[in-house]
Amino acid sequence: MSALSVQGLAFTYTSGGDELFDGLSHEFAPGKITAVTGPSGRGKSTLLYVLGLMLTPSRGEVRIQGEAVSSAPDAARSGIRAAMLGFVFQDAALDPSRSVLDSVMEPSLYAGRTRRDSLERARQLLDELGVGARADHRPGQISGGQAQRVAVARALMNNPAVILADEPTGNLDPSNAEGVIDILSKAAGSQQRTVVIATHDPYVIRRSDEVLSL
Amino acid sequence: MRRAALVRESLSDAWSSKVPSAIIALIVAAMCVMTISTVGRTAAAEAQVAERINSAGARELVVTDKRGAQLITPTLVDMASRLSVTDRAVGIGSPQDVKNAGIGPGATPVPAWAVVGDLEAVAHLVSGRMPGPGEALISTTALKKAGLEYPVGSMTSSDPRLPHGYAVVGSFTPVEPFSELGQGLIVTAPEGAASTNLRIVLKQAGQAEVAQAAILSFFNDVQDPQALGVSSPVELAQLHSEVVGDLGGFGRSLLYSALGIGALLVSIVVFADILVRRKDLGRRRALGATRGNIVWLMLLRSLFPAVTGGILGVVGGIVAAQQAGSLPPLTFCLGVLVLSLISAGLSTLVPASFAAFTDPVKVLRTP
C-alpha cells in the first residue's frame, strides 16, 4: 500500500471554473521521488496543496496510508499535515523572527511534542544537512541555499511519510539545487518516504524516479 | 499544540512584533487611565454622595407628640425598635434643666433627657457604668459646664416629671444622630413614662417610605391628625436614588464608550498585524496548526501586551485620580483592568477568526 495516492482527482478554484487534473488517479511510490511537471497554469503547485490537504478536491479523493482524508474536517487534516506530511516551499518560508533551530522545531509544536523532545532531533537534522553551525542564526543571516536546507530539515522534523516540495530549487544556483535534491533523494531512498516535487527544473526532473506530467 | 508551547509561541510573537504590541499596550493603558480618571472619579463622587446621604442622620425618622398627649408609650417604642427596617429606636423626652447639687441654686443648668429604650442606642459609655433608675450619665463635654471634675456627683431637678435628684454614675459620648445629647445628661425614663419624640434610625435611607408607613400605622387610633409631627427622610431617599442613578448612568456610559473605542482600536491594530503577517499564518497552517491554534495564538499574542498596558494604565489612572483628589475604590480599578482585558480579548476574536479562516494557500502563493 502506498503512503499517498489519488483517485479520480479534480479541482476547481471557482464553482463552474476550469477543472484541473481531469480525474487524475495515481499512486505515489514510497522511497521514490515523483516530479510533477507541466506548463504553467496546469496546477503543479495546486496539486501539491491538494495532496497536502490544504485544498479540498472538487472530485475524487486523496488517500494517505490508504485512507481517504481529503474531505476530513479541518482539524483532522491539520493533524495529518503535522504528523504525516512535510512541506518544502519555493522560498523556504522561514520565520524571520525565530532562529534556524526554532524554525526546524516548529512543526513538532503543532504535532503536540514538547520543545525538549524535539531539540535533539532538530540539531541532528541540521548537522546531517550541513547547517548545524547555523542553528542559532536568524534566516536573514544565512544564504538562500542554507535556508532551503533548513526548510528541508523542517519538513523532515516530524519524520513524515510524505514530503511535498513546491519548486524547492526555484531560487537556488545549480550547486545548491544539487545539494537540496541530494538530501531529498536520501530522505526518499533510505527511509522509504514518498517525495513529490512540483518543478519545471530539468535537473530535478532528471534526478526524479518518476515524472507525472500534467 | 500543547498549552505551554502555545503560550511560548504567543509571547515570542508578541515580542517579535514590537510595534503592534506597543500600540496594543498603549491603547489598553489609555483605556484604563481614561476610565479610572473619569469614570473612577464619578464612582468616587457617587460613593461619597451615597455615603453622605446614607449617613445615620439621613436615615432618621422622627415622630413628635406635638400636644404632649402621651402618644409615644414605651410599648410603641419597643414595637418600632422591632421593625425589620429599624436599626435603632428610642423615645426621648423634652430636655429639662438640672443643676449640680454640690454647687446649689447658683450652678449652671445643663439639659437632661429621659430616654425610653436601650441607652446604648444613643450613648457610648466612656467611664463608669450604665445608669439604673434615679441615675444619670453625663456627657464628657458637659462635665465642665455642670461644674464636675469627674463624672461623679449629684444633680437636682425642679421638673416634677423627673426624679428630684440623680446620682451621676458615668460619662458618655453621643452616638450619631443623637449629637444634641452631648450637651448634657441622659437618664433612664421612669417606668411607663411617655416620650415627646420617637426617633428611629433606619438600616437604609431607601427604606424611609416603607418605615414611615409602618410607624404611622401604630398611630391609627389617633383622631387628631395635627397631634403628630413626622420628619422623614423619604425625600432624601428619593434624592439618593436619583443622584446615585444619574451618576451611575453617566459613569456607565463613559465606561462603555472608553471600552468600545479601545476595543475598536485594538481590533484594527490586530487586523493590520494579521494582514502584514498573513504569510506567517499561512505557513503555520501548512505545517499543521489548526484554526483553533491560530485563534489562540492571536488572542494570547494580543493579551500579553494588553496585560502589561492594563497594569501600567491602572497605576497611571490611580496616580492621576489621586492628584485630582478623588481616589476610586481599589475594586473599581481591578474591575476596570479586567473589563479592559476582556474588551481587548473580545476585540481580537474577530480578526483572529479571520486569520484562522483565511485560505492558507492563497496567502502562501501571494508574492
TrEMBL record, chain A:
InterPro entries named among the record's database cross-references: AAA+_ATPase, ABC_transporter-like_ATP-bd, ABC_transporter-like_CS, ABC_transpr_LolD-like, MacB-like_ATP-bd, P-loop_NTPase
Gene3D superfamilies given in the database record: P-loop containing nucleotide triphosphate hydrolases
Cited Pfam families: ABC_tran
Domain ABC transporter as annotated: residue spans: 4-214
Superkingdom field: Bacteria
CDD domains the UniProt entry points to: ABC_MJ0796_LolCDE_FtsE (cd03255)
Keywords, sorted A to Z: ATP-binding, Nucleotide-binding, Transport
GO molecular function: ATP binding; ATP hydrolysis activity; transmembrane transporter activity
Keyword field contains Transport: yes
One GO CC term, this protein: plasma membrane
Protein name: ABC transporter ATP-binding protein
Organism encoding this protein: Galactobacter caseinivorans
UniProtKB/TrEMBL annotation, chain B:
Membrane topology type: Multi-pass membrane protein
GO MF term list: transmembrane transporter activity
An annotated GO cellular component: plasma membrane
Record field: transmembrane: 21-40, 254-276, 296-321, 327-357
Subcellular location: Cell membrane
A Pfam family reported for this protein in Swiss-Prot or TrEMBL: FtsX
Superkingdom of source: Bacteria
Domain ABC3 transporter permease C-terminal positions: 254-358
UniProtKB keywords: Cell membrane, Membrane, Transmembrane, Transmembrane helix
Similarity-based family: Belongs to the ABC-4 integral membrane protein family.
Listed name of the protein: ABC3 transporter permease C-terminal domain-containing protein
Source species: Galactobacter caseinivorans
